[in-house]
Amino acid sequence: MNKTAIITGASSGFGMLATVELAKKGFSVIATMRNMQNKDTIIELCKQESITSKISFIQLDVTDQQSIEHFSSQLSQLSSINVLINNAGFAFGGFCEETSILEYKEQFNTNFFGLIEVTQAVLPYMRKQRRGKIINISSISGKMGFPGLSPYVASKHALEGWSECLRLEVKPFGIDVALIEPGSYKTNIWTKGKRIAKNSMLDTSPYSFYLKAIEKELESGTSNYGNPQDVAQLIVDLCSRKELSKLRYPIGKGVKASLIMKNMIPWKVWEKIFHKKLNVGGIGRDNYIQ
Questions:
Q1: What is the CATH number of domain 4-201+225-254?
Q2: Span of 24-28, 140-144, 222-226 with lowest mean pLDDT
Q3: Separation between Cα atoms, residue 213 and residue 141, nearest integer Å
């Protein structure tokens, strides 16, 4: 039986790679993206694999109501919807004191509220079928905080809680919900249209020493970033399974160990490890201020 997968944010990163891999596995993939000009890269990749017939495109801006309504109107034309992969999102950085409510809302409108609207559009069809899978792309940031990334971290924590509720609600209808929680990967989530709260970018920010420490840590760790193809393969694997027995699927170097350690050790110890790694306590902090 031909299976149909819908994926949001398909123009780059995990979304683009998963789109191609799903098509190679025989799925009919509906790739959605905000800017349709970005579909050319996917088309070229599909030509190389002779799978262009397996891909179709729908323009979708998950933050725009008219775009959501247009997307919803297209769903009735599908014979079935087997999988929804909520991948659209971006990363917004900023310190809690300095990030405005408008900046928080911008992050949540894409990473959380837009995802909810897309899911609500698809769910009636899956309930009628009595089957389906919803795979939400979360992050290790959905399980642990990180200084200077509060908008992104908060949006992923919200996604984790909402997905847990959703799974409990729709399981009786034969629908599985899963969260993929990647660690650090070589994608453009932080470089494409890089967004950091305006006040946190100022040299006069009291947290400027923290931002320098974080940037240094991120740069030093790039060699350990994973291959995004691994996440795409996990997406395909979950889409192909008969049943998703677990809710959460962490992936990436050191991710599982970090989650276990955070849950086992006292918060006071975890906090000290964090600050020591960033070198932002005591003398280390004074060095950054100088």
A1: 3.40.50.720
A2: 222-226
A3: 18
Average pLDDT taken over every residue of the chain: 90
**pLDDT, tens digit (0-9, with 9 covering 90-100), for 151-181:** 999 999 999 999 999 999 999 999 999 999 9
Closest by CA position to 182, among listed 8, 13, 5: 13
- Sheet of 132-137: strand order equals 55-59, 28-33, 4-7, 83-86, 132-137, 175-182, 248-251
**Beta strand ranges found along the chain (DSSP E):** 4-7, 28-33, 55-59, 83-86, 92-93, 132-137, 175-182, 195-196, 248-251
Q: Is the pLDDT of residue 269 over 60?
A: yes
CB within 8 Å of 177: residues ≥ 6 apart: 133, 134, 135, 136, 163, 166, 167, 170, 171, 244, 247
What per-residue confidence (pLDDT) applies to 290? 45
Active site residues: 152
Where are the chain's structural domains?
Answer: 4-201+225-254
Q: What is the pLDDT of residue 193?
A: 45
Label residue 127 exposed, middle or buried (CB < 10 Å: 0-12, 13-18, 19+). Answer: middle
Rounded to an integer, what distance in angstroms lies between the CA atom of residue 13 and that of residue 15? 5
Contacts of 223 by beta carbon, 8 Å cutoff, 6+ apart: none
